[in-house]
Amino acid sequence: MSPQPNSSPYRRVLLKVSGEVLMGPREYGLDPETVARVAGEVKAVADMGVELCVVLGAGNIFRGVAGAAAGMDRTTADYMGMLGIVINALALQNALEAAGVPTRVQSAVRMDSICEPYIRRRAMRHMEKGRVVIFAAGTGNPYFTSDTCAALRASEMACDAIFKGTKVDGVYCSDPHENPGAEHIPRISHMEVLTRDLRVMDATAISLARENAIPIVVFNVRKPGNFAHVVSGDGLCTVVESV
Q1: For residue 5, is it within any domain?
Q2: β-strand 12-17 against 161-166: which pairing, if any?
Q3: What confidence category does residue 3 fall into, taking pLDDT thresholds of 50, 70 and 90?
Q4: pTM reported for the whole predicted model
Q5: How many CB atoms lie within 10 A of CB 21?
Q6: Of 85, 154, 190, 233, which has fewest CB within 10 angstroms of its CB?
Q7: Following CA atoms 103, 107, 112, 114 in sequence, which dihedral angle do they give, to the nearest 10 degrees?
Q8: Residue 200: which residues within 8 A CB-CB, separation 6 or more?
């Protein structure tokens, strides 16, 4: 597939989506309709000519921190979470290819019979050829979250921005679901996010993005068509950037 002419201000971006988004209305697991809808969001951006990679979480299947809190060894729990991310990655790959989007899954934990190992230059070449790359199994190390993996891969891939898909339209001064009058913050610095403990992403991820001057665009991924709108420079969002 030949890359399309780029109609966005971004050349290459990374999309971070939590596993909970893929649950849809379910209490756990994968909702096929929701996965297909997320694939449609990714396709819309890929069709704009933007080079695109994706990092998923696994909170819909297994969360390492929760397993550790229940008495499980943290390292074991985190490896189980990595396997959950691979499951989500394969589901999204299937939905994307069903929509006609060429896709590759690269895992930080070798699983050669089902996906490629993570190789930086190969991943970059895939994106240059118009393929969407899904990074699976986190960083391959325990004690690091999928948010940190997103910041790491975005740095390695020289992405212009990280797009953090959430259930709200960006960063607010307080939880908008609990406080309907919460003020939306259109722009904020990485340091202020850390200082105010706004929990956009975990502190390690924010620090890594700050160190590499990568903006984080927080937007509502559950709103149909919103990913493409925000990548185009439209739509309600919050930009976390260096100052």
Answers
A1: no
A2: parallel
A3: low
A4: 0.94
A5: 22
A6: 233
A7: -50
A8: 164, 171, 193, 206, 216, 218, 238, 240
